[in-house]
Write a structure and sequence with these properties.
With 345 residues, the chain is mostly helical. It has 17 helices and no strands. The two termini are 26 Å apart.
Amino acid sequence: MSSAGRLALGPADLADGRLGRLHRAHRRPVRERTGSAAWVSAALFAGVVGSVIGAPAAGYLGDRFDRQRVMIATDLASAAVASTMASVIDEPTALVELFGLLAFVTSPFAPASAAAMPNLVGEEAVARANALVATTTSAGYLLGPLAGGLLLGVGVSAPALFAVDAATFVVSAVLIASIRRPFGSGRGTESHPGVLAGVRLIRREAVLRILIAASMVSLLGMGIVNVAAYPLSLRLDGGTEGNGAMEALLGGGGLLGAALAGRLLTTARAPTIVATSFAVSGLGLALSGMAPVLLVALAERGDAGGRRARRARWCALPVEASAVCALLAALIASRLRGRDAHQMT
């Protein structure tokens, strides 16, 4: 990767990591104020619905307009929504609706970022660049939930947490604006018109259909886990700090996976790495489900390592995003990357 590419990628990957992903801690205020896992599920469901509604337009924007401007506008709109969430923290219905709106307004960022990467670093460095982005994104998942859980645990108010989250979106926008390299003009809608151009490509390409199906199944399982994670933390006497630690160690596993991807990933190896990553992720989730049983057995034996085992189980979840993005970059023309990348997010 050229030195210029590294200079461009530095702010880009930090921005893509969203500087902490503090919004993953937002589920806890919902749970604490309602006492119901159903409200947490509703918030997650609203986020999924918002992403689905925004999906067609999200990819289209990255293919139609300047991708740097799309990413900046997305961050600023997301900051506005996150700030609004701080003012309705005691109104669960409004908070759930804003979860959906936040997912909707943030949806253009990921496809625009993925589509811009080959323009920032060159086609030959896309695999390594995606691994670097995955590393910093995982660092965000490591630090953000941990910070959010610790702040809530020591008494910082939930509105303040939302305000910090809004500030991270603003910082992200500033970092993206500082990049002085072309992101791609995004004029692919002229030769490939329509918001569903990516869908038509997926219908023609068997490899893309398989990737989409695998991602959907994986996300279905992760959605179930997201609802269950906080109640599980309470059951294991972890509280908000314990849940933050579990979320953070998920990011720690991602850091390890991204580091391995940076060393091993090539376009030719991408299919094998994707398959292996999904398999290891499934094993990690299975171990998570066994955590209460394992802890009881350890407690009966007087094993002080039980607490460490509870946290370490999350380290098994790696990052397959780098390999998926490498495959997409190899299979999809630049003018279609935005619309097709969003089918994967």
